[in-house]
Every structure is written in structure tokens, then in C-alpha cells.
Amino acid sequence: MKIERINLRRLRNEEWFQFMTEFNFYVKDDDRVMTDIGELYDKFAEAYNLSDEVLQQLRKSIFTPVIQAADAKRDELFRGLRNTMEAAIRHYLPQMKEAATIVMPVFETYGDLAKKPYNEETAGIYNLIQDLRSKYQSEVATLGISPWIDALDNANKDFEESKEGRTSEYSQAIEVNMLEARKQTDSYYMDIVVKVEALSIVNGDAPYERFIRLLNANIDQYKESISRHTTQPTEE
Fold it and tell me: How confident is the model at residue 171 (pLDDT cuts 50, 70, 90)?
């Protein structure tokens, strides 16, 4: 049996590490695979554990209190604006209710941006604001929500400035270490993949069929994830 291929370099750091964590579980959970790949697993495990340590450092360098505070501020403003719109739909003045009914679908299109990953939220808020200012000028004026929009715009820009400020020499060094850890782990991952495929030819598919089917199903899911964010800016 063949194991599907996936371009691991196109996975974001968190996705990549989760993929490797699941792969690690599949290997350890299969006694036959563990036995037959021998020392290859030890090499993979060492590289995987190193990538875990580096990723922890990278997380700490990214998710600083300043960035978290800036993100919380824009989250609060976004939800406040959305709640204002929801209240306006039930407004006693017909013109307010009509304006809110026209504008509310754009909020529904973008969804709860406050729950999105950092970069997706930044892009979503930017696009939402552009839509409100260009396509719904009359309704925005009727609703009197320009101050909300301006405040959200400023908070979104403040967040980006805070996030960009993390690119110190220290952070860059950690990112380089993460790249190297990924390369090493990917190399041992592929060694295991090739080894299992070779073993399935020599010993038959049966001893490895469960492992390969589980891995292939998981690979399919991550390929879908890659296709979903191919046109979006990466988070790393």
C-alpha cells in the first residue's frame, strides 16, 4: 500500500506540529510498525521533541501580554459594534430598523471575527470596515455607528503594530530554529513513510494496513486545510 504525500512545508507551525503529534500517536499505537521501523522512530522522536521545545519558545515570543491586550481590545469593540447592530434591528424608529436590517447581513457574512486566528481576524476586520465605509455609507450615517467603526479600525491597526513589534532578533532566531527543527522532523517522517511502504511490499499489506489507512485519512484532512488557507496570508 502507498502512503499519500503531503507538502508539509505548506502547513502552518501549529498545524504542522499537530500533524506530527497525530503521526507520532499512530506509530506508537501500532506495535508492528514500532517494531519494524526500529531506530528510525527514536530519531524521529528526538527531532519531534526538539520541535515541541522550539515551538513553545516561539509561542511565548508571539503571544506577549501586549499583543493579547491589543487583541482583547479589538475583540471587545467588534462585539460591541455587532451588539449595537443587533439592538438596532429591534429599534422603535423605522429608519433605524431598516438601516440595521440592510447592514446586518454583512456582519453575518464575516461571522464572529473575535474567534478567528490573529491574521484572519485582522484581515476580516479590515474588509468589514471597508465594506461599511464604501457600500453602506447611508445606513452607517443613519445608525450613527461611525465612532464605533473608527475605534475598531484604530484598535485593529494598534494590534498589527504590536504584533509587528515582536520581530526582534530573538524572535527571528527562534523562527530559524523552528524551521530547522521542522526540516529534521520532516526528514525522519519521510524515512518512516518510505520504510513502511517497503515493508508492506516485502511482508504484505496486512500487517500495516490499519496504520496506512489511518495516516492516509489524516493526510487527506490536512490537505483540505492547506487548500482552505492557500490564498490567505500565513500566520507564522
Answer: low
